[in-house]
Specification:
With 404 residues, the chain is mostly helical. The chain contains 16 helices and 4 strands. It has 2 domains: 262 residues, no CATH class; 140 residues, no CATH class. Helices cover 63% and strands 5% of the residues.
Length: 404
């Protein structure tokens, strides 16, 4: 069997394992129906009211191409009462395909041994990092899952040839216009490409990057057009302090230890920073990983600025979505360190930190059932929708009335 066929077969296994993990973590969402916030009260109503035009309608200051495309297709093909059951399954399939793409991209890394096993762990890590579950199985938060897949797709681009290049370019275009992350990651992508991509670039690779760049330019123009008041300077005060208290420490240590005293929190974080620094410095791809971690930190800091001063962003609390990308990139860095670092100490430190992260994640691996999603038939053939986190609206194809 050729190496290509082996990789494709293992990618299929990764798809299956990712689907099983999602089903194990969120059986209620798949079996009882689930819509989240803007799923039922923004994207679906817009799809009914505006049709295909909704795909280019900004929301919260940027485009949501992938969620709106799914909502448009669902609105045209699925009865309203079935939507809470269909959309989570669609999200499960898309998330599992993203794991396959990430696996194929991770296979290109310079692993010391067992490349398929390490690449599979990298692909599945977004489903295993500490997280409340806010971003999973709903179209509203697909943008958070799309960002790491877009990075993996761009890293995989030189290995894609033939007809697959057009599909990959289309995917890069849609992902780039799904959330603001393509704009935020552009400086890091450009820098990595300038340092790592040597020699002539194939047409296929150029086509994929053209899709990403075009989507990013469009998204950037929308963000600039919809930009509101600038963030006040005081909004980022305390971000560095909060990063040790609410971001870095809780990913590896029980919160009871960190909350016991400020000295304990600082000591634990210092030890952690030493281990991380040692592990990352011994990696052959450390430049890319430091850029990726910086991007993740910027996403989290932007969340701090958006939520407001004094707010706490915790992986098991409110606004947990802002911890998702930093934790995914941190897990990727640790796994890549464990599988590629030249130092034995760096490899063992990375493995130990990965295990600690997984143990912390296990404390809330199966989250509590959220507010139940329901679709009740209303008068005049309309439907009353109740979605978490406690939103209610009346949906009628072509007409819309919302209330919270």
């Amino acid at each position: 069997m050729t190496q290509k066929n082996t990789g494709e077969r293992t990618a299929a296994y990764v798809f299956l394992i990712a689907a099983l993990i999602l089903f194990y973590r969120f059986p209620d969402r798949l079996l009882s129906g689930f819509l989240w916030a803007e799923d039922g009260l923004r994207f679906l109503p817009d799809a009914y009211q505006f049709g295909f035009r909704a795909l280019v309608s900004p929301y919260q200051g940027y485009l949501h191409a992938l969620p709106r495309l799914i909502a448009y297709l669902a609105a045209r093909t699925t009865p309203v009462p079935c939507l809470p059951f269909v959309l989570p399954v669609v999200c499960l399939v898309i998330t599992s395909i993203g794991a396959m793409v990430t696996y194929l991209g991770a296979l290109r890394l310079p692993w010391r041994s067992y490349p398929a096993a390490w690449a599979a762990l990298v692909a599945l890590s977004p489903l295993l990092v500490p997280h409340s579950g806010e971003v999973f199985l709903n179209i509203t938060n697909l943008q958070w899952l799309a960002a790491p897949v877009l990075l993996a797709l761009l890293y995989l681009a030189p290995a894609i040839q033939g007809k697959g290049a057009l599909a990959a370019a289309t995917a890069a275009l849609i992902l780039a216009m799904s959330g603001p992350f393509s704009v935020l990651m552009l400086p890091f992508v450009a820098t990595v490409v300038a340092f790592r991509f040597r020699g002539p670039v194939s047409r296929a690779t150029g086509l994929i990057f053209a899709g990403y760049i075009f989507g990013t330019v469009v998204q950037g123009m929308v963000i600039l057009t919809c930009a509101g008041d600038p963030t006040p300077p005081g909004a980022l005060v305390g971000v560095l302090d909060a990063s040790t208290r609410d971001l870095l420490g809780p990913a590896f240590f029980p919160r009871a230890l960190l909350s016991r005293s400020e000295m304990a929190a600082m000591g634990a974080t210092a030890i952690l920073a030493l281990a991380l620094g040692s592990a990352f410095w011994k990696m052959p791809v450390r430049f890319e990983l430091f850029a990726m971690l910086a991007f993740g930190f910027i996403v989290w800091a932007a969340g701090m600025a958006k939520i407001g001063s004094g707010a706490r962003i915790l992986w098991d609390g409110g606004a947990a979505r802002y911890t998702f990308l930093p934790y995914v990139f941190l897990a990727w860095a640790l796994l890549i360190g464990a599988g590629t670092a030249t130092s034995i100490f760096a490899r063992r430190s990375s493995v130990a930190l990965c295990i600690a992260m997984l143990l912390i994640s296990s404390t809330m691996f199966v989250p509590l059932p959220p507010v139940k999603t329901s679709v009740d038939e209303a008068s005049e053939a309309g439907y009353v929708i109740h979605v978490p986190p406690g939103w209610t609206g009346t949906l009628k194809p072509g007409k819309l009335r919302l209330r919270r």
